[in-house]
Write a structure and sequence with these properties.
The complex is a heterodimer of chains A (about 475) and B (about 500). By secondary structure, chain A is mainly α. Chain A is built from 19 helices and 2 strands. Chain A has a two-stranded antiparallel ribbon with strand order 1-2. Chain B is mainly α. Chain B has one domain. A two-stranded antiparallel sheet of chain B has the order 1-2. In chain B, helix 5 packs antiparallel against helix 6, helix 8 runs antiparallel to helix 10 and helix 13 packs antiparallel against helix 15. The relative contact order of chain B is 0.10. The chains are: A mainly alpha (about 475), B mainly alpha (about 500). At the A-B interface, helix 15, helix 16, helix 17 and helix 19 of A face helix 5 and helix 6 of B.
Chain lengths: ~475, ~500
C-alpha cells in the first residue's frame, strides 16, 4: 500500500478529533496552573469547548460528496462517523455538566481529560475502517473508562467497579484481537472493506468465517453489554461514579453499536448471512429478556438502570438483525433516542443522590412532593425508556419493531413487544415511589445547581422533540445509515 | 385554508396541561379555573364540529392533512365522519363535566389536571386521526396517564393493584395491535399509514383472517371484551371520580372505536370470518356482566360491571356488520359514555359524603341530595333502555341488527335488560330511598352547584337524544354507510 500524501481535506475530516485533542491539552495545562477552588469551572470549560467543537465540525467537516477512505484506508469519512462523533461529544458535554458538582470528581482536571480521551476513542471507533485502527480506537475508549469507573479511589465499591471492568474488558478485547488476527490470517487484509470483498469473492469454508465472527463478537458484545457478556454491567454501574455510568451506558454503548453495524453488516453479511443473523437474533432475544427479567428484582436504581440498558441493547439488536435499510436507520434512531433518554435518567439519579446520598429506589419516595420538576423529569425519562409517546423511546421502539416485521421476523417483534411490557412494569414501579409513596424527608430541600438544571432541561426537551418531530430525525438517521452501503 | 378546528381540539388539553404545570403549586384555585376554561373551550369546539358536520355531504370533513414523515408515509391526517363526530362531542362533554366534578381535589391538583388533560389529548387524537401510526401514538398517550391518575388519586385500598393491572392489560393489548398494524402497513405495500388508502389495499383473504384477531382483540381489550374485561371493574372502582368517568365514559369507547376503525374497516373479510367469535364473546359480556353486576354489594362495582355489560352490546353491534347493528353501536358508544359518566359522578358524590359504597349501608339519600337522585334515576332508565331516552335509541337497533344475523343471540342478550332493571332498581331503592342511617344524619349535605351543573348537562344530553334521535342517528348512519361500502354491502 502506498503512503498517500497528506491533503488538506483529510485534515479537515479529522478536525473534530484534532480540536478534541487540543481541548484536552488546554485542560491538562490549566489543571497544573489553576488553584483547586477554581477547578469546578473545568465542567463549564469542557461543555463549552465541546459545544464550540461541535459547531465548528458542523460548519467545516460535515462530509460532502462520496464517502471515501482516508489516511491510507484507516478511517472512513462518512455520515455515520461524523454524526456519531457529534453525538459522542454531546454526551460528553452533558456528562461534564453532570459531573461538575460531584465531590471528588468535578474538581479534578483528570476526570475531564480522561473523559475527553475516551470520547476521542469513540469518534475513532465510529470512523475506523481498518481492524488495527479499530482495535486502537476501542482501547483508547476503554482504558480511560477503566480509570474513570474506579475514579473514587477511597470508595471500595468504585475501586471494585473499575477493577472488574478492566479485567472483563481486557479479557474480552484479547479474544476480539485474536478474532482480528484470524481475519487478517484468512484474508491477508486489515481494511474491513477489503476483508469484506475477499470474503465474498473467495470461497471460504463457513466454519472459518463463523469462527472469527464469534471471537470478534465477544469483544463487541462486551461493549454493548449483550448476552453472554453483560455480567460486568450491573456491578460496574453500581460502583462507578454515576456521571461516568451515564456516559458509559450511552456513548460507549452507542460506539459499540456503530462498530457492530459497520463491521458485522459490511464484513460478515455476504459471507455468513443466514447463520449470523440467526445467532444475533437469539442473542437479541436472550439479552432483552434477561435484562428485563432481572431488572424486576432490583432495589438499587443504578443496578435497575444497568439491567434496563442491557434490555435496550437487546431491542437495538432487533434493528441490526433486520438487515435492511429500515433496520439500520432504526438502529441509528434508537441509539440517538436512547442516548438522550438514558442520560436524562442518569441525570436525575445524579442530581438526587448528590443531595440525598442514596441510590436505593425506596429513597425516591415522596420526590414528587419534594421537587415536582425533578419528579417530572424522571417521569419523562422513565416513560421514554418504557416506550411511551410522545417521547423519543416510543418512536424508536416502533421503528425497530417495524424493521423486524418488514424482514418477516414477526416472532422477534412479538418477543420485543412482550418484553417492553415487562419493562413498563419496573419503570412504573420506580415511578410509584416517586409519585405515590410518602416519606419523612418530603419537606427537606433538594437543591439543584445550575449545570444540572441546564443539562436536564436540554435532555428533556430533546426527548420530547425527538418523540414528536420524529420526521427530520428519521431522515437524518436514514442518511447516516445509508453511508453503510 | 380553513380554521384547523380539529387540531385545536386535540392540542387544547395538552397545552392547557403544560400551562397548568407552570402555575405555582399553592395557587390551586387558579389551576382549577384554567382547567375549566380549557375544558369549556374543548366542549364548545367539539359541539361546533358536531353541529356543523354535514351528513348530507358525508365522508370526512374538517380534514387537515400534513405530511409528517414522508419516508414511511406517516401523515398528520385528521378528519371527522359520522362515526367519530359523536365521540369527539362525548369526549368534550365528559372532559367538561369531569373538571366540574373534580373541583374538590386538594392533593396536587396541578398534576391531576395536567395528567387528565394529557389523557384527553390522546383520546381526541385517536378519535380524529386517519393515520394508523398516529392512532397508536395517541392511543398510548391516552393509556399511560391512567396509571398515575389511578395510583395517586385513587381509592387507597386497591389503587396500586388496579392501576398496574389496568396499565399492563391495556399495554399488552395495544402492542399486540401494534404488531398487527405494522403487518398491515408492510403487507399493503403502499408505504403509507393513511387508513383511508389502506382500506383500499385489498389484502388477500388469508392475510386478513390471520391478522384480524390480533388487531381487533388487541384494541378490544380496552373495549372491555370478555375474557379480557377483568381490568375494567377494578380500574373503575379504584379510580377517582373524574377518572372513572373518563375511563368508562370515553376510554372504553376508544378501544371499541379503534377495533372498528382498524380491525373491521381495514380487514373486512377478516371481520366476516371472525364475526361469530365476536358475537359469542360479546354475548358473554352482555349477560355475564349483567349477572355479576347484580350480585355486587359495592355501588361502584355494580356500575363497573354494568359497563362491561353495555360495552358488550357495542361489540355485538359491530359483529352484526349490518346497518342496524352498526348504527346502534355508534349511538350506544355515545349514549353509554354519557350515562356511565353520570353514574360514576353520582357514585363519587355519594361516596364523598357517606364514605362508604356498600349498598346495604346506604339509604335515604334522595332527601339529602334530591338533584342527584333524579339524575341517577334518569341515568338508570337510560341503562334499562327506556323509550324516550338515549339508551333505547341505541339498544333497539342493536337488537334488531343481531336478530337479522342470529335471532337466538338477540333473545339471550335481551335477558340482560331484565337483569339491568333489577340491579338499577335495587340501587335506586336501597341508596336513594328507604330509611337513612343515623350516622349519616347531620353530616351528609347536598352537592355543590358545579356538581348539579355537570349532572344536568349529562341528563339533558340523554333526554335530547331520546326525544329527538334524528340529531344523532342521521349522522351515525352516514358514517355506517361508509363502513358498509368497505364491507361490500354485506
Amino acid at each position: 500500500m502506498t503512503i498517500p500524501s497528506f491533503e488538506l481535506n483529510m485534515v479537515i475530516a479529522i478536525l473534530p478529533e484534532i480540536l478534541l485533542v487540543a481541548l484536552t491539552g488546554i485542560i491538562l495545562v490549566l489543571d497544573a496552573l489553576w488553584k483547586p477552588e477554581r477547578k469546578r469551572a473545568f465542567g463549564w470549560l469542557t461543555a463549552g469547548g465541546l459545544l464550540v467543537v461541535m459547531v465548528i465540525s458542523f460548519l467545516v467537516s460535515a462530509p460532502s460528496g462520496e464517502d471515501h477512505l482516508i489516511f491510507g484506508g484507516m478511517l472512513r469519512q462518512d455520515w455515520l462517523a461524523f454524526a456519531f462523533n457529534v453525538v459522542f461529544m454531546f454526551a460528553a458535554a452533558i456528562t461534564a455538566l453532570f459531573a461538575m458538582d460531584i465531590e471528588g470528581l468535578g474538581q479534578k482536571g483528570e476526570f475531564y481529560v480522561l473523559m475527553l480521551v475516551s470520547t476521542l476513542g469513540m469518534s475513532l471507533m465510529a470512523a475506523s475502517a481498518d481492524i488495527i485502527m479499530l482495535y486502537l480506537a476501542i482501547e483508547t475508549t476503554s482504558i480511560p473508562m477503566y480509570i474513570l469507573a474506579g475514579f473514587m479511589t477511597r470508595e471500595d465499591k468504585s475501586t471494585e467497579s473499575g477493577f472488574k471492568y478492566m479485567l472483563f474488558g481486557a479479557a474480552a478485547s484479547a479474544i476480539m484481537l485474536y478474532g482480528f488476527s484470524l481475519l487478517y490470517g484468512f484474508t491477508g487484509q486489515t481494511n474491513i472493506y477489503q476483508i469484506a470483498s475477499s470474503f465474498s469473492s473467495l470461497d471460504f469454508p463457513k466454519i472459518t468465517v463463523l469462527g472469527s465472527l464469534l471471537l470478534v463478537l465477544v469483544g463487541f458484545s462486551f461493549k454493548i453489554s449483550a448476552f453472554p457478556f453483560h455480567f460486568w454491567a450491573p456491578d460496574v454501574y453500581e460502583g462507578a461514579p454515576t456521571p461516568v455510568v451515564g456516559f458509559l451506558s450511552t456513548a460507549s454503548k452507542a460506539a459499540g453499536f456503530v462498530v457492530v453495524l459497520r463491521v458485522l453488516v459490511d464484513v460478515f453479511t455476504p459471507a455468513a448471512a443466514p447463520d449470523w443473523i440467526n445467532l444475533l437474533a437469539i442473542i437479541s432475544v436472550i439479552t432483552m429478556t434477561l435484562g428485563n427479567v432481572l431488572a424486576l428484582a432490583q432495589k438499587n436504581i443504578k443496578r435497575l438502570l444497568a439491567y434496563s440498558s442491557i434490555a435496550h441493547a437487546g431491542y437495538i439488536l432487533i434493528g441490526v438483525v433486520a438487515i435492511s435499510a429500515l433496520g439500520q436507520s432504526s438502529v441509528v434512531f434508537y441509539l440517538i433516542a436512547y442516548l438522550i433518554t438514558n442520560l436524562a435518567a442518569f441525570g436525575v439519579v445524579i442530581t438526587f443522590s448528590r443531595v440525598v446520598g442514596s441510590d436505593d429506589i425506596t429513597a425516591y419516595s415522596g420526590l414528587s412532593r419534594r421537587k415536582p420538576w425533578l419528579a417530572l423529569a424522571m417521569l419523562v425519562a422513565f416513560l421514554s425508556l418504557a416506550g411511551m409517546p410522545p417521547l423519543a423511546g416510543f418512536v424508536a421502539k416502533v421503528f425497530v419493531f417495524a424493521a423486524a416485521v418488514k424482514s418477516d421476523m414477526i416472532w422477534l417483534a412479538f418477543v420485543g413487544v412482550l418484553n417492553s411490557i415487562v419493562g413498563l412494569y419496573y419503570y412504573l414501579t420506580v415511578l410509584k415511589y416517586v409519585y405515590l409513596y410518602r416519606s419523612d424527608d418530603e419537606t427537606q430541600p433538594l437543591p439543584i445547581s445550575k449545570p444540572y438544571t441546564l443539562a436536564l432541561s436540554i435532555l428533556i426537551l430533546g426527548i420530547i422533540v425527538v418523540g414528536t418531530l420524529f420526521g427530520p430525525w428519521f431522515q437524518l438517521s436514514s442518511r447516516i445509515a445509508a453511508s453503510l452501503f | 385554508m380553513h380554521f384547523p378546528i380539529l387540531s385545536v381540539i386535540v392540542l387544547t388539553p395538552i397545552i392547557a396541561g403544560m400551562i397548568i404545570l407552570l402555575i405555582p403549586s399553592d395557587r390551586k384555585v387558579v389551576v382549577r379555573y384554567v382547567a375549566l376554561a380549557a375544558a369549556s373551550l374543548a366542549l364548545v369546539l367539539s359541539a361546533v364540529v358536531y353541529i356543523s358536520y354535514n351528513p348530507a355531504v358525508g365522508g370526512y370533513q374538517f380534514v387537515e392533512n400534513y405530511s409528517w414523515m414522508p419516508e414511511l408515509g406517516i401523515t398528520y391526517y385528521v378528519g371527522v365522519d359520522g362515526m367519530n363526530a359523536p365521540l369527539v362531542l362525548l369526549t368534550g362533554i365528559v372532559m367538561f363535566t369531569g373538571v366540574l366534578i373534580s373541583w374538590g381535589i386538594d392533593d396536587r391538583p396541578r398534576e391531576f389536571f395536567a395528567f387528565l388533560f394529557i389523557l384527553a389529548t390522546g383520546v381526541f387524537g385517536v378519535f380524529v386521526t386517519q393515520d394508523l401510526f398516529m392512532l397508536f401514538f395517541f392511543y398510548e398517550i391516552a393509556v399511560f396517564p391512567m396509571y398515575l391518575l389511578i395510583s395517586i388519586w385513587g381509592w387507597i385500598k386497591t389503587r396500586e393493584y388496579a392501576a398496574m393491572k389496568l396499565t399492563l392489560y391495556l399495554f399488552i393489548g395495544s402492542v399486540i395491535s401494534l404488531v398487527g398494524g405494522l403487518a398491515l402497513y408492510f403487507g399493503s405495500g403502499l408505504n403509507t399509514f393513511d387508513m383511508i388508502k389502506l382500506a383500499q389495499a385489498n389484502f388477500p383473504e388469508s392475510f386478513q383472517v390471520f391478522w384480524f384477531p390480533f388487531v381487533f382483540f388487541g384494541f378490544a381489550v380496552l373495549g372491555g371484551i370478555f375474557p379480557f374485561h377483568n381490568w375494567s371493574p377494578d380500574g373503575h372502582v379504584a379510580a377517582p371520580t373524574a377518572v372513572s368517568m373518563f375511563h368508562a365514559g370515553v376510554l372504553m369507547k376508544l378501544g371499541a372505536f379503534a377495533a372498528l376503525r382498524v380491525g373491521i374497516m381495514l380487514l373486512p373479510i377478516g371481520a366476516l370470518h371472525w364475526r361469530w367469535l365476536i358475537l359469542a364473546l360479546a354475548l358473554v359480556n352482555v349477560v355475564y356482566g349483567a349477572f355479576i353486576a347484580m350480585v355486587q354489594t359495592d355501588f361502584k362495582y355494580v356500575i363497573g360491571f354494568s359497563s362491561v355489560s353495555h360495552m358488550g352490546l357495542v361489540m355485538m353491534g359491530f359483529a352484526t356488520l349490518n346497518k342496524n347493528g352498526l348504527t346502534g353501536s355508534g349511538i350506544q358508544m355515545f349514549s353509554h359514555g354519557v350515562m356511565t359518566a353520570l353514574f360514576f359522578a353520582v357514585v363519587g358524590m355519594v361516596y364523598d359524603r357517606a364514605h362508604t359504597r356498600e349498598i346495604n349501608e346506604l339509604g335515604g339519600f334522595s332527601r339529602k341530595m334530591p338533584w342527584v337522585a333524579v339524575a341517577f334515576i334518569i341515568g338508570g332508565l337510560v341503562s334499562m333502555g327506556m323509550p324516550g331516552l338515549s339508551g333505547f335509541v341505541a339498544e333497539f337497533p342493536i337488537f334488531m341488527g343481531v336478530w337479522q344475523v342470529q335471532p337466538i343471540v338477540a333473545i339471550i342478550a335481551s335477558i340482560s335488560i331484565v337483569i339491568t332493571a333489577s340491579y338499577i332498581i335495587r340501587i335506586i331503592g336501597r341508596v336513594f330511598f328507604g330509611p337513612m342511617k343515623l350516622e349519616f344524619e347531620g353530616h351528609v349535605g347536598d352537592v355543590t352547584v358545579k356538581d348539579k351543573l355537570a349532572l344536568t348537562l349529562l341528563c339533558v344530553v340523554m333526554i335530547t337524544i331520546g326525544i329527538y334521535p334524528a340529531i344523532m342517528s342521521g349522522l351515525v348512519s352516514s358514517g355506517v354507510d361508509r363502513i358498509l361500502s368497505l364491507l361490500g354491502g354485506a
